[in-house]
Amino acid sequence: MPFNSFFSWIIKKRIHQIDLFRMYPKEVQNEVFERLVLQGAQTVYGKQYSFDKISSYQDFRASVPLIEYDELKPWVDRLMKGEQMLLWPADTKWFAKSSGTTSERSKLIPVTKESLEECHYKGGKDLLAIYHHNHPNRKLFTGKHLIVGGSAEINLNPETDDSYFGDLSAIIVKNLPWWAEIRRTPAKEIALLSEWEDKVERMAQSTIKQDVKIIAGVPSWTMVLASRILEITGKSNLKEVWPNLEMFMHGGVNFEPYREQFNRLIPDPSMNYVETYNASEGFFGIQDLVGGDEMLLMLDYGIFFEFIPMSEFRGKESTEVISIEHVELNINYAVVISTNGGLWRYILGDTIRFTSNAPYRFKITGRTKSFINAFGEELVVENAEVAIAAACAKTNAQIREYTVAPIYMKENENGGHEWLVEFAQYPDEMDRFIAVLDEKLREINSDYDTKRYHDMILIKPKVKAVAKESFNNWLKENGKLGGQNKIPRLSNDRSILEQIAKNSEFI
After folding, report:
1. CB-CB neighbours of 453 under 10 Å
2. What are the start-end ranges of the E strands in 340-397?
3. 376 & 433 share domain
4. In this structure, are 464 and 378 located in the same domain?
5. pLDDT top residue among 98 and 330
6. Measuring CA to CA, which residue among 112, 106, 90 is closest to residue 150?
7. How far apart are CA 337 and CA 321, in angstroms?
8. How far does CA 442 lie from the centroid of its chain?
9. β-pairing, 416-425 with 462-465?
10. For residue range 116-147, what is the model confidence (pLDDT) as tens digits?
11. Pair 491, 377 in one domain
């Protein structure tokens, strides 16, 4: 066990550094800010916005505009053609296809050597460090780590012949350091397959006889793999396949609607579930408390954070932008990042709510463009996740996927919300499911409750159950089938719901 002993020694040093940014968040973020501005001043972007004259955060806000992907794309296009020193003072030759749900087109996010090593890989190491610190007797490096990645093909950029693009998971796997590669499964040639259905089959066949201790992936796609493994082996749960399985690292979607299904898949009260917040743009958060449901904001990964209160959010025209020391608890904020990947005041598209500021812990509440406010109800993803989890719990239901859209008012009809749901286990009583869903939404969202008063504006939700694979079929038709892609939960129009419903069989 020498490697585990060495790992424990490294962990103690890193936990001390994490404790420092827990105690001194403003100072650590100021150091990150100063270092980023110094490096950015050497770039074309930095020269355009006079980074060399920036000496404070106030200067930064005044000089550098907020941007969204439309403003970033021309710079990415130039990088893809081989220009360098545009956004970051080193070669940028990797581009991650973003799995965000706010746009129909693919987004290519620049990935630098620094962002891989100082952010994404550091996040992976810290996750294991925090877990080991919380569970000091576990020997994680005696078994395999099963990574349920996405449709992970790496593509050579024909413009340059020396740069590549693909899912972030593919870029990470392609460049993994030796200490991570020796414990990762499945083999790289399987992990980098682009055809998802073939990949699931080969992942299942190649891992069933291994000693898997950790699984990492998006809950919905991990369930697809787990179901196939149980079919092949004839076992009733994953602990019968992998007796030493002890942790599931999950991210990408809220875990609560899937928790009961995982309790059945892994019927072990000592099983640990750890949430992470890792996107193409950076690694941002790790659940650091045992049994917690919030994440620690990781402040020393080469990312400078800003926040826009959603009540003041106007996209790139927003004027109410604050740094971390001014955030308040229990307010929804849009996240703005400047990074060692060459993103500058980039509006990420995610929204979070701080639950603590000593240290800074938070929950993801949704997307800046994933909400329903057709009638002033301001329904966000967090509301929907809490309500559907409550409805499932009260009716013994389990869900695979869902999406929600408004039902528009007509001449003699009030508006409402339509829920398209694919159940893994159908509710005992659908009417009761709908009633609990509605009651919980009214309890946790006062704007929704006001609009529901006597059905004056909003009627009770309509829930339509669709057959198995309906959502996967939609993803496949749109070229989004794979572990990193997510179903848009809430939409302010009906286009996505109607696309899914069009070719679905209703139950």
Report:
1. 10
2. 346-357, 360-367, 371-372, 379-380
3. yes
4. yes
5. 330
6. 106
7. 12
8. 27
9. parallel
10. 999 999 998 899 899 988 988 776 667 899 98
11. yes
